[in-house]
Amino acid sequence: MPDNWRKVEKITSTSLLPTYSSLALKMHKLLLRLGQYSRCSMAAREADRNNKQQYYNMSLDHLLRGKVYIEELPPDIEPIKMLLEKYSGIRAKDVDEHIYRIRERLWQIYPHVCIGHFRFLSLKFTLDPLYRVALDRLTTPRSPSNFLDVGCCVGQVIRQLAFDGINPSRLYGTDLEPRFLDMGFDLFMDRNKFKTAFVAGDMLEGGEGDESLKALDGMMSVIHATSFFHLFTWENQVRVAIRMVRFLDPDDADVMIFGRHVGATTPGDREGAGGSKRYLHNAESWQNLWEEVGRLTGTSWRTEANDIEEPGMNLHSIADGTLRRVRYGVFRA
Questions:
Q1: Which of 4, 94, 157, 193 is 20 to 30 A distant from 242 in Cα terms?
Q2: Which whole number is the average pLDDT over 107-117?
Q3: CATH code given to domain 124-332
Q4: Across the chain, which distance is largest between two alpha carbons, in Å?
Q5: Are 226 and 125 in contact (CB under 8 A)?
Q6: What's the CA gap between 84 and 154, in Å, rounded?
Q7: d(Cα 201, Cα 210) in Å, to the nearest integer?
Q8: What are the boundaries of each domain within the chain?
Q9: Does the pLDDT of residue 252 top 60, yes or no?
C-alpha cells in the first residue's frame, strides 16, 4: 500500500489529514461539517447529507473502516445489551445481530466514529455519582421534576432512566437529527409503548429549530449533556449554556446540569479537524464560563469538574498529554 494511503487511514487525527491526498481532504471537510454540533448526530444536517450521499457511498468503506468503523462489538456495551434484553425483550441470542443492523442504518445517516465504534450505545453516564442524584430528584414525591437529555442521539439515556423506574412522562430528549430520534424506537423496539417527548431542534440557531425547543422552556430540573460542550468554541458554548438555562425551571433552586466532556490541563482553543476551533476546559475555566453565562442571564452558578481515569481512553487528537476526560456538574449558587 502506498505511504500516503497508510496515512489516510488515520482519518480520526485532527492534524494529519490536510497534508495528504485531496480525496482525504474532501472527506475530512465533509465529516467536520457533520460532526460539529452533537455527541452523536446534531450536525447531520439533512441538506448536507442529501447532497453528499453519492460521495459517501463511493469512499467511506475505503477511507474509514478500521479507524472510524470497527467490526467487533466492544466489551463496554455489555450494559446496553442487558438493557435490550430486559427492557426491549430481545432474546439474548438475537441482541448482537439487532445492534449490527441498527448500526448499519445509523451509519448511512451519520458516518462518524460515534456510530462506527458503537459509542451511541454507551451507558457510562450511569457511573457518574450525579446520575444517582438525578435519580433521587426524579423519584422524590415532593416535586414533579423533569429530565432533559441534550444531544440524545437514539435516546439510550432516556430508556435507561425509564428502566430504572422514572415515569417516561417526565423524560425528554432533544437532538438536531430527527432520524436518530426515530431510530431509537427501532433500536429499543418501543415505538408503540414508550410515551415521552423527543424534540428535534438546533441549540445554536434561532428560527424554526429554536421554535421547536421553546416548548421545553422552564420545565426542567435536571439536564444531561455528554460529549457536547467540547464540540464548540467559547462563544458557542456560552450560547448553548444560555439555551440550557432557558430550559431550567426558574423557581427550582436545586436544578442541575451534568455530564462529561473532553477537557485539558491548560484550557483554551484547540484546533480540530479542518482547522475548526474548540475550547477545552479545566476546572477554573469551566467556572469562568458559567460566570459569564450568569452575567448574561441574571443567574448565578457554581460548577464541579473532575478528571475521569478510564482504561483504554482514546482522546486521539493531541498527543501531548494535556487532554482529560472530565465529569462536570453545574448548580445554582
A1: 157
A2: 92
A3: 3.40.50.150
A4: 66
A5: yes
A6: 13
A7: 6
A8: 124-332
A9: yes
